[in-house]
Fold this protein.
Amino acid sequence: MIGAGVFGSWTAEHLRRAGHQVTLLDMEGPAHNRASSGGESRMTRGAYGKDAIYTRMALDSLKEWKALSATAGLPILIPNGVLFFFPEEQAYLTDSIAAHRALGLPSELLDGPAMARRFPMIDFSGVRAGIFEPGFGALMASRAVQTLVRNYVAAGGEFRHELTHFPQHGGPLKSIQFASGSTLEADAFVFALGPWLPKHFPDLLGSRIFATRQEIFYFAPPEGDRRFLPYVMPGWADFNAGDMYYGFPDLEARGVKFAHDKHGVAVDPDIQSREHTQAALDEVIAFRDRRFPLLRGAPLTGAEVCQYENSSNGDFLIDRHPAMPNVVLVGGGSGHGFKHGPEVGRLAAELALSGGVQSEPRFSLATKGDTQHREVH
Ligand SMILES: Cc1cc2nc3c(=O)[nH]c(=O)nc-3n(C[C@H](O)[C@H](O)[C@H](O)COP(=O)(O)OP(=O)(O)OC[C@H]3O[C@@H](n4cnc5c(N)ncnc54)[C@H](O)[C@@H]3O)c2cc1C
């Protein structure tokens, strides 16, 4: 198992649970600072519009996240609820509600005045409708993956800190080489390299996985103002007529989080600058001051620069390498993959063990185009 981000670590854990001898490798630590799974927090939610496949996966994954959180000294899941709001009652909202009703989720459909009464830290001008999802919320990203790997090792799995090289040829892959000089043989290999996938499989994925620069900002709430605390303020996303922003309350006093969910410029995860740009900060502040006027003038408490590893339409890649039958490729988290880590890992482990073909077309290599046209939100 190569790559100890959220996808690879859950794949390793599922393979271990199935009774296999598993070695999980990463060139750095699990969910390190430059990985897509690094950083403070990620949102988990079940609102996916017409893409109910992801609602089901988020819900199934939530059980695993809860169980993992119960093993950790500090919280991994902070289920403070998630609010998505819209300028009008659009299909994404009605489709999400229908999917949630079918699954028995207690999500609430709210109008603008109801949201304004309940969430006074947000200015809902121009907002007509929203969906509030109790039970979903924030996953503490690095902590979650690091705890998972710690538990996996305690249960008998192996983790090795190694930069891996591998030959690419037709036929089964027999072994991989490490920068340290040693090699490792295995019956099956799973590569979950996040934004490094196109670099390592340039012929196959060079034009099918797009790494883009993403910036996140945290601001100090007004001193003593409890409206920005978790469980008072929800995780939120403003659909903002297709130009989405999202964020979190002041989790663990890091600051109130804001991000613009727009794909940034194409980047190389090895060399992109990890310093935030003034342009991205200005953009977020302009949004913040309009939608969260109580935060006007709030000082910046932190910033993170990361990368999305987008597939052409936002669907994940969980498929066999077309020329190397014992190699499975996993990735394309596309800015929404973290919450699904447990389910992606389960599906990847099943595929690696079965020797069969990917039966869900949305996760197949064949459906991954080479032009970015995001459809999953
Ligand atoms: C800013 C931002 C916000 C996001 N927000 C959300 C959110 O709110 N909700 C949500 O669900 N998802 C969110 N996502 C998406 C989610 O975080 C990613 O889809 C997910 O973390 C991808 O995980 P991964 O395991 O595929 O990749 P990674 O975490 O990048 O893991 C890949 C690993 O492979 C290793 N590796 C690469 N090459 C080699 C090699 N040759 N040898 C050894 N190891 C190697 C790397 O070191 C790395 O650790 C967000 C992503 C970003 C960047």
Remarks:
- The chain has one domain: 6-367.
- The first helix runs from residue 6 to 17.
- The chain has nine helices and 19 strands.
